[in-house]
Write a structure and sequence with these properties.
Largest sheet: 9 strands, antiparallel
CATH class of the largest domain: Alpha Beta
Low-confidence stretches: 379-383
Strand content: 25-35%
Order of helices and strands: EHHEEHEHHHEEEHEEEEEHEEHHEHEEH
Mean pLDDT: 95
Shape: globular
Number of helices: 12
Structural class: alpha+beta
Distance between the termini: 42 Å
CATH topology of the largest domain: D-amino Acid Aminotransferase, Chain A, domain 1
Helix content: 25-40%
Bound molecules: adenosine-5'-diphosphate
CATH superfamily of the largest domain: ATP-grasp fold, B domain
Number of domains: 3
Number of strands: 17
Length: 383
């Protein structure tokens, strides 16, 4: 791949976090002619393999971040120590997105307050954990991911057991939304304020972990426009530079509510690598390097992305299953090179492109069953 000219002269981008999201920045980094310097705690983390240099340190180790020695630092993981990073910003280290843009997004309660204060629809919420009506949702305010830290509670017994288990962690309680579907959208903003919004997609979670994404979501134009305008208004009000992943609920009566915002690339945007003109990873790098953004549109009428989750506790590399999946027509298998499989661990994903939009949802769901049968493990609970 021939590197593109890089007119702003950013040559080294620091990335806090070295999981699959950082690993998937590699192709874009090569294309744009930038080196990635990765801060991550374990030498076996996926992005160590693609880094020009790695600083082995905890995500919230700001003293380590100070040694990344890059023109700009961005994030693939938001479990940072913001106060400590502010000290670095005051010394002139450049973070994109800015720490001010991250501030309202690191804690699920702060996010909900941010949405409410800006009239962005979001579930009702409270930090007063008193006599709820069931079902109700209990969340840890920080450090939740892939449903770790999210509990859908249906009985008093479950409520009490969960509170006991969580001990004195800071919690958020919110209304359970009996959604019809979950939606997501990726959107990016450049240093000049230029915005691009990717297609709105449908996601499905199982046990609170993303299982599959169908792109685009089959939606009335008005819903699509509403989601896109929420994305724009969030990027603008945060003065955000970089890429944002937004997860939403669509209720049976067509109401859209924002569930969560991730200030980085997101699992719901993995389909963009194979199905869009510009991947979410390239868009992130373009934004944080001060380059103009590039087109977000799809190169095909539809796509399905399915996460490949571990189901064995072993060193299994699932090679046979991967080969069979890669042989499916128009399929692209991405394997993150993690050294150990654990049940539920995200080990890779597959994206399949469709050459027609007819019955996309139905055909994607049928194909997901085929993929699940090849992949093995526990059959999907959802059908
Ligand atoms: P995480 O940060 O771990 O991804 P989320 O807050 O996004 O956690 O929740 C994970 C999943 O749990 C959601 O995608 C959704 O399926 C379910 N969920 C979360 N909050 C609610 C809610 N208020 N009502 C109904 N389901 C919810």
């Amino acid at each position: 791949m021939k590197p593109e000219a890089n007119p702003v002269g950013v040559h080294r981008v620091g990335v806090i976090g070295g999981g699959q999201l950082a690993w998937m920045m590699a192709d874009a980094a090569k294309k744009l002619g930038v080196e990635l310097v990765i801060q991550t705690p374990e030498a076996t983390d996926p992005a160590v393999a693609i880094a020009a240099h790695t600083v082995l340190a905890a995500i919230d180790d700001a003293a380590a971040t100070a040694t990344l020695n890059c023109e700009v630092i961005t994030f693939e993981n938001e479990f940072v120590d913001l106060e400590a990073l502010y000290q670095l910003a005051h010394r002139g280290i450049c973070f994109r997105p800015s720490l001010d843009a991250l501030q309202p997004l690191l804690d699920k309660y702060d996010q909900r307050c941010y949405f409410r204060d800006r009239h962005i629809p979001t579930p009702k919420f409270s930090t007063h954990l008193l006599s709820p009506e069931f079902p109700v949702v209990l969340k840890t305010r920080r450090h939740g991911y892939d449903g770790q830290g999210t509990f859908i509670i249906k009985t008093v017994d479950q409520w009490e057991a969960t509170l006991q288990k969580l001990g004195n962690r800071s919690l958020l309680m919110e209304e359970f939304i009996p959604f019809d579907r979950e939606l997501a959208v990726m959107a990016a903003r450049s240093i000049t304020g230029e915005i691009v919004v990717y297609p709105v997609v449908e996601t499905e979670q199982e046990n609170q972990v993303c299982r599959r994404v169908i792109a685009p979501a089959d939606l009335p134009a008005s819903t699509r426009v509403e989601v896109q305008s929420i994305a724009r208004s969030l990027l603008e009000s945060l003065n955000f530079v970089g890429i944002l992943g937004i997860e939403l609920f669509l209720t049976p009566n067509g109401t859209v509510l924002v569930n969560e915002v991730a200030p980085r690339t997101h699992n719901s945007g993995h389909y963009t690598i194979d199905a869009c003109t510009t991947s979410q990873f390239e868009q992130q790098l373009r934004a944080v390097c001060g380059l103009p953004l590039s087109h977000p549109q799809m190169i095909c009428p539809g796509a399905l992305m399915v996460n490949l989750l571990g189901y064995e506790t072993s060193q299994s590399d699932y090679l046979e299953q991967r080969q069979q999946l890669a042989a499916l027509p128009n399929a692209f298998v991405h394997w993150y090179g993690k050294t150990a499989s654990r049940p539920g661990r995200k080990l890779g994903h597959i994206t399949v492109l469709f050459d027609s939009a007819a019955d996309l949802r139905q055909r994607a769901i049928a194909l997901e069953s085929t993929i699940a049968a090849i992949w093995g493990g526990k059959p999907s609970l959802s059908r």
